[in-house]
Design a protein that fits this description.
The complex is a heterodimer.
Chain A: H1 2-28, H2 34-39, H3 45-55, H4 61-73, H5 87-122, H6 127-141, H7 144-158, H8 181-192, H9 196-232, H10 235-242, H11 247-276, H12 279-284, H13 290-299, H14 303-331, H15 334-337
Helix pairs in contact in A: 1-4, 1-14, 5-6, 5-9, 5-11, 6-9, 7-9, 8-9, 9-11, 11-14, 13-14
Chain B: H1 2-21, H2 32-38, E1 49-54, H3 69-78, E2 83-85, E3 92-94, E4 97-102, E5 108-113, H4 127-138, H5 151-156, H6 159-162, E6 163-170, E7 173-178, H7 185-188, H8 199-204, E8 219-225, E9 229-234, E10 246-251, H9 255-263, E11 269-270, H10 278-283, E12 287-293, E13 296-302, H11 312-321, H12 324-332, E14 336-338, H13 361-370, E15 377-382, H14 394-406, E16 410-415, H15 419-427, E17 433-439, H16 446-453, H17 471-482, H18 486-503, E18 506-519, E19 522-523, E20 526-527, E21 533-534, E22 539-540
Parallel strand pairs in B: 1-10, 1-11, 15-16
Antiparallel strand pairs in B: 2-3, 4-5, 5-7, 6-7, 8-9, 9-10, 12-18, 13-17, 13-18, 14-18, 19-22, 20-21
Classes of the chains: A mainly alpha, B alpha+beta.
């Protein structure tokens, strides 16, 4: 097992090196002079030269790349052009907001996805199956920003049940403690004896969670269904049924456990994607996370920030993939033998 | 790993495209009790919390260090300047300085400070504080000069080329010694970068000042949660009456989401509405639209160094042949107004007696015939690849011009480059005719006319991309630049605009119109032409 883990960790190095290289050259080779674009109409020759040297753009590309690689290895992603703050600090400030939303979305998508997937598989070709799978198709195909706006229109503006965006009612004047607002809400509940903060944090989470969780929900439901159908055809299931084991036990005890193996992989990948792919959801729901930050950095042409952001997300993605693979081999020992 | 590769590829190429093509473009809480107790309750205007929903977060809160509008939205409430723009105009009025004298040679400005003003930390605002705030930007030897960059002072406004020294004459008198007569200097002092900061607070934590700012402004800083909200409380010691108890600047990046938040009453004022939502906002009885023309101009520069635009008649013909009303209707909608002068109407000295070139195809044809182009000619029109405040869709405008100019037999080829390249090529005069524009900084006519149209600016890399060198025009605006008397300057600029109109180096296109939707309970909210949102005189109807 240790050897397996070490081997997987070893594979991380070339992967991440590839990511760094790709990210660097994609941005370095994009047409246009970043300095000129950043300064716009009011640039003069002196300012251009100054900014180019600040950004290291006056060095040959190969040297820029090696310098960048050197800094990344030391864990230094550079400074944001816009804020002059360390990019690592900027990212960690926003990371918890993104993680909170990714966790709630994953929980929402996993529970509902598995329940629907199992129901569809058990009643194959029934109305349950058809409506679940049609719903899943719609869920996968729906543009997130559109869904987000529709949710706000219905639940916030129309029914007046939930807030339109942000993480907390700003009129409550709340000071973040752990930066996981649900946990902060509970702490404040104990401290001040009122649930207002917790309730507000919870309400602010609902719509973004649904918007962000819909696609993973659809994918998880479909994967669960097909995996479940596969397993239900297996001989041991037939044997169990023939032996008179109650159907409920057959499905949940014997079939589901095996059927969940691929589903776990999918959930892991989806969690990784949620951390990175929340740009639209975070922007529309004014959620102060990493996705929104990257979006803003792109519009501000803050290219060290964009490079750093993409690298950070890629790193997360790779790590989550690794954890999923390890988890998988724990649940399914056969993997380790291959 | 294939998935990862794809992810990176997608993210990176998305970014690459954005760089190339140009894309589109909140601790301490809760002294709620304190705010309630502090309310003066003198009349029914007092009190209330206003939430302003805006598109982005501030970068930092030291006004001298920042360059972006979102930062100034916050610093403008926290800091005062020596002089300020009269709300809604570019007229300069007293603020921390109650009066000022100018020496006969226009080289010495003496400011008399308001008595009894205190910073939010309780320390007195005096001549030393003024000198500290500005000298840290000016003097390279200043102990805190290294905490810059002081981009506005040094780069954008060239203040170090204007100001020689700043001296505290006594506790309430500050003297500025200039290196050269430069009348627009006074307008620069009204800009946010010239805000007066608490020296005590700054020296205590120079690095942290921009996240914990202390000024003398109408609102004092309470807390800042990054990318979420900035909370400001009323300064009860302010030298004018401030009504709001609390002002919260809340970040909502998506324009439609801001509009939904306004409808729901989560916010009271929103920034940058989407053009598509404006009709619905106008129809909503609970919403009022506050408008102000933007301090900018979009134009088509005709390169005077290239044929046929070396001929005044051809330039005038272009002005007659282009129907600006059609362009405004098709491209700007309610977000723009026709431009007839190179400066926008909210800038003092705007010459409203000038009559815009009417749309007149026959007149244009006659002028072309006179100039020897009876059969028309071929021309390039360059269109910017990006949306700018003064020109949301240059490509579409170019197409409209193409159709309009065809009527006088002028055949237009539309040309566009990536934005950085576009600017470079324009600065070096490679174009025959190119669209561009300018957003003003300090509300002074000089900030438009000198940069964009003077003869010295027509040298590559040029600000004057019409490469129009008119001695008479340049002489007038040079004299205006060196004269302190505002009435006299006004006359000089009025005369200069007459020459501009006659010589027609540009086809002026439009000035943008800025719209800010507010809830109907919000009273006395104003937009400054410089782009700032002013909250000190706002009150909420109960």
């Amino acid at each position: 097992m240790l050897k397996f883990i070490l081997k997987r960790l070893g594979l991380l190095i070339p992967t991440l090196l590839g990511v760094v290289t790709l990210v660097f050259f994609m941005i370095a080779l994009a047409p246009g002079d970043p300095a000129r674009i950043m300064l716009g109409e009011r640039a003069n020759a002196e300012q251009l030269a100054q900014l180019r040297s600040e950004l290291g753009l006056d060095q040959p590309l190969s040297k820029q790349y090696l310098l960048y690689l050197g800094r990344v290895i030391r864990g230094d992603l550079g400074k944001s052009i816009v804020t002059q703050q360390k990019i690592t600090d900027e990212l960690t400030d926003r990371l918890l907001a993104t993680i909170e939303l990714a966790i709630t979305s994953t929980i929402f998508a996993s529970i509902l996805g598995i329940v629907l997937g199992v129901a569809a598989a058990r009643k194959r070709n029934s109305w349950v199956d058809y409506s679940t799978m049609t719903g899943a198709l719609v869920g996968v195909s729906m543009p997130v920003f559109w869904l987000a706006l529709v949710l706000i229109m219905i639940f916030s503006v129309g029914l007046d049940l939930l807030p339109t965006g942000g993480r907390m009612n700003v009129r409550l004047y709340f000071i973040p403690i752990t930066n996981f607002y649900l946990i902060d809400g509970i702490i404040m509940w104990f401290r001040e004896g009122k649930a207002d903060y917790f309730v507000s944090a919870l309400k602010h989470l609902i719509l973004p969670t649904i918007a962000l969780g819909t696609i993973p929900l659809a994918i998880i439901a479909r994967t669960t269904r097909s995996s479940m159908l596969e397993v239900l055809k297996q001989d041991y299931v037939k044997t169990a049924r023939a032996a008179g084991v109650p159907e409920r036990k057959v499905v949940f005890r014997y079939a589901l456990r095996n059927a969940l193996l691929p589903v776990i992989t999918v959930i892991g990948i989806q969690f990784g994607l949620l951390l990175s792919g929340a740009i639209l959801t975070e922007t529309i729901f004014a959620w102060p996370g990493i996705g929104k930050w990257i979006y803003h950095s792109i519009s501000a042409r803050d290219f060290p920030a964009v490079q750093g952001g993409i690298l950070f997300i890629s790193f997360f993605f790779v790590m989550i993939n690794l954890i999923v693979d390890l988890l998988y081999s724990v649940i399914n020992p056969r993997i380790r033998l291959k | 790993m294939k998935k990862l590769f794809l992810l990176v590829l997608v993210l990176a190429s998305f970014t690459g495209m954005a760089f190339a093509g140009g894309g589109s473009e909140s601790e301490a809480a809760a002294p709620a009790a304190a705010a309630e107790a502090a309310a003066p309750a003198t009349d029914d205007k007092a009190g209330g919390v206003l939430v302003f929903g805006r598109a982005g977060d501030s970068v930092g809160l030291d006004p001298a260090r920042e360059t972006d509008g979102e930062s100034f939205y916050a610093t403008h409430q926290i800091f005062d300047t020596l002089v300020e723009f009269k709300t809604g105009t570019t007229e300069i009025v007293p603020a921390l300085a109650t009066s000022w004298d100018v020496s006969d040679d226009n080289l010495t400005y003496t400011f008399h400070l308001r008595e009894g003003v205190k910073f939010h930390d309780g320390t007195p605002m005096n001549a030393d504080a003024v000198v500290f705030s500005l000298d840290r930007q000016l003097s390279e030897g200043h102990k805190y000069h290294e905490y810059g960059p002081w981009k506005y002072w040094l780069n954008y406004m060239g203040m170090s080329d204007i100001v020689g020294s700043i001296v505290a004459k006594d506790d309430l008198t500050v003297v500025f010694n200039l290196q050269k007569p430069e009348a627009p200097f006074i307008a620069n002092l009204a800009m946010d970068f010239a805000g007066i900061v608490s020296p005590t607070a700054f020296m205590a934590d120079p690095e942290g000042f921009s996240s914990n700012p202390v000024g003398t402004g109408p609102f004092k800083f309470v807390s800042w949660t990054k990318d979420s909200d900035i909370v400001l409380d009323r300064n009860d010691d302010y030298w004018e009456e401030v009504q709001l108890d609390r002002l919260i600047l809340k970040v909502i990046p998506d324009a439609t989401a801001r509009w939904l938040a306004l409808q729901k009453g989560e916010v009271d004022v929103i920034d940058f509405p989407a053009a598509d939502d404006l009709p619905a906002m106008a129809a909503d009885p609970d919403v009022e639209l506050i408008q102000q023309s933007g301090m900018n101009v979009g134009y088509l520069a005709l390169n005077n160094e290239k044929k046929p635009y070396d001929d005044k008649r051809v330039r005038q013909a272009m002005n007659y042949a282009i129907d600006r009303d059609e362009i405004i209707a098709a491209v700007y909608g309610s977000a723009g107004q026709v431009a007839k002068n190179p400066i926008p109407p909210n800038i003092w000295s705007y010459n409203d007696s000038i009559e815009a070139y009417p749309y007149d195809v026959n007149k244009a044809k006659a002028l072309l015939a006179e100039a020897g182009y009876a059969d028309g000619f071929k021309t390039e029109i360059w269109a910017m690849p990006v949306a700018r405040p003064y020109n949301p869709d240059a490509r579409k405008i170019a197409e409209i011009m193409q159709a309009q100019l065809a009527k006088i037999n002028v055949e237009v080829e539309i040309i566009s480059y990536e934005w950085g390249t576009y600017l470079d090529k324009c600065d070096f005069g490679e174009h025959q005719a190119a669209m561009l524009g300018w957003t003003g900084d300090n509300g002074d006519p000089d900030n438009f006319l000198w940069v964009l149209l003077s003869a010295p600016s027509a040298v590559p890399p040029a600000g004057n991309i019409a490469f129009w060198k008119n001695d008479e025009f340049t002489a007038l605006i040079k004299e205006a630049k060196e004269t302190a008397d505002v009435a006299k300057r006004t006359q000089l600029y009025m005369d200069a605009q007459v020459i501009f109109h006659e010589e027609a180096p540009w086809v002026t296109i439009a000035h943008s119109v800025v719209t800010v939707p507010v809830s109907s309970t919000v009273q006395n909210f104003k937009i400054s032409p410089t782009g700032t949102r002013v909250f000190k005189s706002v009150w909420l109807e109960k």
